[in-house]
Amino acid sequence: MKRMAVLWAVFLLGMGAWAERVADRLHGFALDLPEGWKVVLGEGGLLLTDLESALLVRGMPLKPPKEAVRPLLEEARRLSGGQATLHFKPASGGLLLLARGLGYPLPLTQGAMGDLLLFAADPQVQAALSGLRYEATHLLLPGPKSLLAVSAYLPQDLPTDRRKEVLGLLRSLEFLGPEKRVPYRVEAVLDPLLGVPALRVPVPQGYTLQGGVVDFTETQRRPVFQLSKGGVVLRREAIYLQALAIATPFGGSPSTILLWNGRLGKVPGFLCAQGPGELPALFAQGLWAWETGSPWEVEKAKPLQGVSRVAQYLEKVREAFYWQMGQQMLMAMGRPGDQFQSWRQSLDLRARQGSVGRQAVVEALGFFGYMPSFAASSAHCTLHLEVALVQGTAEALSREEGTLTGVLFGLALDPRWMALEAERSRTVSRDLTRMVLQMNKEAEEFNTWMSRSWTNLLSDQTYARDPATGETFRLYKQSFDTGAFWREPVFGGVLGGVERGGKLEELLQAGGWRRLEESLSGLPGTWR
Predict the structure, then answer these.
(1) E strands of 103-195, at which residues?
(2) How far is residue 404's CA from residue 409's CA, in Å, rounded to a whole number?
(3) Greatest CA separation found in the chain?
(4) Alpha-carbon distance 170 to 29, whole Å?
(5) pLDDT, tens digit, for every residue of 225-273?
(6) What phi, psi does 261 have (nearest 5°)?
(7) Which domain of life is it from (predicted)?
(8) At what angle do helices 2-12 and 394-410 cross, to 10 degrees?
(9) How many C-beta atoms surround the C-beta of residue 119 within 10 A?
(10) Mean pLDDT estimate for the chain
(11) Which bin fits 369, alpha (ψ -120 to 50), beta or left (φ > 0)?
């Protein structure tokens, strides 16, 4: 059970608090996974990284040494801006290449960053990371049909104990024989809106997959899925909560809107988390209790943080971004006395209900505001949750551990979907912004029209316009007077208080007088 929690931390965040033996029975390898490291399986090979150091194991075409090292030399040139120093030597029946003076290997680590990549791509952050100098050690071992390349990318100033940890991880890697592996197939979670696969999931023999792409915010969507076999369930979820409570001297009216994997519902009461400390109860006594019909007992709730200095630096940049966003919202929307905070939490959560256990890694982004008032105080809470969860009895999870590890390591977002979804999200965001701005403009115009109209009505004034010449007049008119204004065609004199449909109106019309258009506000397009 403890190792399963390691897997979820690796899957969602690349963070853990353990260093235990982990086996992937689908892809056929095992290793000792240190704290804070993430495993990424991709076309480039097997990547192990804590976002500071990186280990890459890959297969390459079997070629003579000079040709085999050519891609590595080109890589060193790109990472160093052409300033790398290179050394070669025979080693362990192969070739050892050492490249020094490299920059931060973002092309390698970005696949393990998750949402931190948004902050790593910032020019100021890249400038800070460029201050780290790296060295890459590549060991090329020829085999019968291919070349095995084992590469280590380490900061040149990495402390000795951390360097030993990285090399120990590399030495712990072993490949499993066919008898220990589990057959699987790869299925795609399709996005019918964009017409491309969103997520590719390795499905072990005997498991069934359900998945889709669901709304997560007003502009963003997420792929979700559930993989199940017997009593074992593995799932990826996207949850959005919006809670509102209004308190008056006569009572309150709390309510919560819940969007869970694209299904919209309403939950009674104020179901949200005002801060990170309320997350465990939100799930155990709130969301999961509402889902299953009874509460869960929390066994462990541990915040997850990066271990390496690069991971911690990126997390601080992210934290500062959301703090600043909260301050901007407070300045834009707040009044004296209003309170507003934004927060983010990564949490390893374990709970139990009878013999069934749940282990989840939760990524939460929350916004909470409180607006005090003598007449009616209000509280507003918004919560975005991305959850990776495994459920089953202790025996079942222990039996399926290596299989589920392979599923977690093999999950892959489709690059085409990521690009198309990002463009769609930007388009929707722009359209939504234009709509909100237009609504605000119309609201401001309406408020101005109403304010001017009431002012004129109470001060016995109004506006009148000659439809023939376009001239506008501000005229005296008592608020209870319903008569109209007429203008003489030759000298332009204005006569008011003319009863509509009366005999005087007929005579004026016969004499060529013009009835003026009238408006209390006088705003263009609002004449009544």
Answers:
(1) 134-142, 146-155, 174-175, 184-191
(2) 9
(3) 116
(4) 12
(5) 999 998 899 999 999 999 988 877 666 778 899 999 999 988 888 889 9
(6) 50, 40
(7) Bacteria
(8) 20
(9) 19
(10) 85
(11) beta
d(CA 470, CA 464): 10
Of 5-14, 37-46, 349-358, the range with the lowest mean pLDDT is: 5-14
Neighbours of 470 (CB within 10 A): 7
What is d(CA 424, CA 208) in angstroms, rounded to the nearest whole number? 30
CA–CA separation, 56 and 468 (whole Å): 82
Highest mean pLDDT among 17-26, 150-159, 321-330: 150-159
Whether residue 43 contacts residue 56, with contact meaning beta carbons closer than 8 Å, is answered with: no
Alpha helices in 136-285 (DSSP H): 160-172, 279-281
* Coil, helix or strand at residue 148: strand
- How far is it, in rounded angstroms, from Cα 50 to Cα 70? 27
- CB distance 245 to 373 below 8 Å: no
pLDDT at residue 218, rounded to an integer? 81
Nearest to residue 381, comparing CAs of 389, 373, 371, 395?
371
Tokens 């066919």 sit on residue: 178
- 240-279 burial code (b ≥16 CB/10 A, e <16): bbbbbbbeeeeeeebebebbbbeeeeebeebbbbbebebb
Which helix (H) or strand (E) is 233 found in, with range? strand 232-248
Find, among 318, 296, 300, 269, the residue nearest to 114 by Cα: 318
Tokens encoding 371: 């607006």
Residues 431, 486: Cα–Cα separation, whole Å: 46
Helix (H) or strand (E) holding 324: helix 309-333
Given this model, what pLDDT does residue 336 score? 64
**Cα angle value 449/460/490 (rounded, 5°):** 95
What residues are paired with 245 via a beta bridge? 379
Phi, psi angles (nearest 5°) of residue 476: -85, 135
Output DSSP code: residue 156. T
